[in-house]
Design a protein that fits this description.
The chain is built from eleven helices and ten strands. By secondary structure, the protein is an alpha+beta fold. The protein has three domains: 114 residues, Acyl-CoA dehydrogenase/oxidase, N-terminal domain (Butyryl-Coa Dehydrogenase, subunit A, domain 1, Orthogonal Bundle), CATH 1.10.540; 108 residues, Butyryl-CoA Dehydrogenase, subunit A, domain 2 (Beta Barrel); 146 residues, Butyryl-CoA Dehydrogenase, subunit A, domain 3 (Up-down Bundle). It binds flavin-adenine dinucleotide. The site of flavin-adenine dinucleotide has 23 residues, from helix 5, strand 1, strand 3 and helix 11.
């Protein structure tokens, strides 16, 4: 495996870094305070081709690879965790399932607007009574003539309040063993009976849109079924495997921002007549932070590389997500510690990094679920 970035990957990284520094970072504090979703940033990212990095040009994408995409996630996440989360969710959860499992017609109708940045997509899996246990999905889709009629409720769905379509999972029948068949269905957000509420008050990633979905007799054509109806469960597990790499990269980006802030502060702040960075206790903290970030980034790159090579990547995606998210929480916590009381104050940003990064241990499969995924791979 060669970790050297190609010229194209390096170019994307630098372009996104500049854009994130100039256009995203200056808004991060305001988005956190006001819980405003930065739709204008997503329009600009669409114009730059960032919303379709890993998709072919024929579907409105930029023809890049997973590595280029996760490099973009890291740079955006470093500038603003909220924007990073919505960016990662739009691509990994909103657009990717359409690309992986959609028919040619579905791709033209639903993927092209997302990949070209004209609108956002979302993925509705979690329900009030089905989180880690996604097999416990209660939303139902019943065939009626040429349509599905969908009833149910989804919670905490990223971007849904600004999305053109949400791919929702629903029970569509029972298999020969009597187990529920869970399928994925594309639902345009303007379908009658589809209500989207964005009233959650979150601890972090407060500028990312998080919505509740209520589906009451929502009628969509049967042609909106995504992929193989019998394999809906496997399809969304595959979608989550890919999404985990991007959440890991987002964790690395937020940790990098926290580390850089702590490094800078430690060289400026003086106590006992010396800078904090001259104390070995601070140096050891910084050394651990830098090392862990680098190791996590390598794990993310390895998982992305495997995916790009069409090799199995489930275990490595879980490694990356688990290690990067727990590492990033440690790093952001230490960044506050290095800042002392100032770190506890909003104006120094590091407290926001910790609030934002905590989600990475929960979303797209908690740390406990990652350990289950890894153990299953080891024992299978
Ligand atoms: C801001 C935000 C954005 C989100 N975006 C989306 C989205 O876009 N789409 C979407 O579908 N979902 C989304 N989610 C939902 C997220 O994926 C779930 O919160 C997550 O999967 C965990 O489910 P849960 O919250 O119901 O926790 P639970 O499953 O109730 O788990 C609670 C605790 O029990 C532990 N636990 C559960 N089962 C086991 C077990 N078998 N062994 C050991 N421990 C276990 C968990 O690890 C956790 O610590 C989002 C959530 C948030 C907070």
């Amino acid at each position: 495996m060669n970790f050297e970035l190609t010229k194209e990957q390096q170019m994307i990284k630098e372009m996104v870094r500049d854009f994130a520094k100039n256009e995203i970072a200056p808004m991060a504090e305001e988005l956190d305070k006001t819980e405003r979703f930065p739709i204008e940033t997503f329009k600009k990212m669409g114009e730059l081709g960032l919303m379709g990095i890993p998709f072919p040009e024929e579907y409105g994408g930029s023809g890049g690879d997973t590595i280029s995409y996760i490099l973009a996630v890291e740079e955006i996440g470093k500038a603003c965790g909220s924007t990073g989360l919505s960016y990662a969710a739009a691509i990994s959860l909103g657009a990717s399932p359409l690309y992986f499992f959609g028919t040619e017609e579905q791709k033209q109708e639903h993927l092209v607007p997302l990949a070209s940045g004209k609108s956002l997509g979302a993925f509705g899996l979690t329900e009030p009574n089905a989180g880690s246990d996604a097999g416990g999905t209660q939303t139902k889709a019943v065939v009626d003539g040429d349509d599905f009629v969908i009833n149910g409720e989804k919670c905490w769905i990223t971007n849904a309040g600004f999305a053109r379509t949400v791919t929702v999972t629903a029970v569509t029948g029972k298999d020969e063993r009597g187990k529920n068949i869970i399928s994925a269905i594309i639902v345009p957000t303007d379908t009658p009976g589809f209500t989207i509420n964005s009233n959650y008050e979150k601890m972090g990633v407060r500028g990312s849109n998080t919505s509740e979905l209520v589906l009451e007799d929502v009628r969509v054509p049967r042609t909106n079924l995504l992929g193989d109806p019998q394999k809906g469960f496997g399809q969304f597990l595959y979608t989550l495997d890919g999404g985990r790499i991007s959440i890991a990269s987002l964790a690395v980006g937020i940790a990098q921002a926290a580390y850089e802030a702590a490094l800078k502060y430690s060289q400026e702040r003086k106590q006992f007549g010396k800078t904090l960075s001259s104390f070995q206790a601070t140096q050891f903290k910084l050394a651990d932070m830098a090392m862990e970030i680098d190791l996590a980034r390598n794990a993310v790159l390895k998982a992305a590389w495997l995916k790009d090579q069409d090799k199995p990547f489930k275990k490595e995606a879980a490694f990356a997500k688990l290690f990067a998210s727990e590492m990033a929480t440690r790093v952001c916590n230490q960044a506050i510690q290095i800042h002392g009381g100032y770190g506890y104050m909003r104006e120094y940003h590091v407290e926001r990094y910790l609030r934002d990064v905590k989600l990475m241990e929960i979303g797209e499969g908690t740390s406990e679920i990652q350990r289950i995924v890894i153990a299953r791979q080891l024992l299978s």
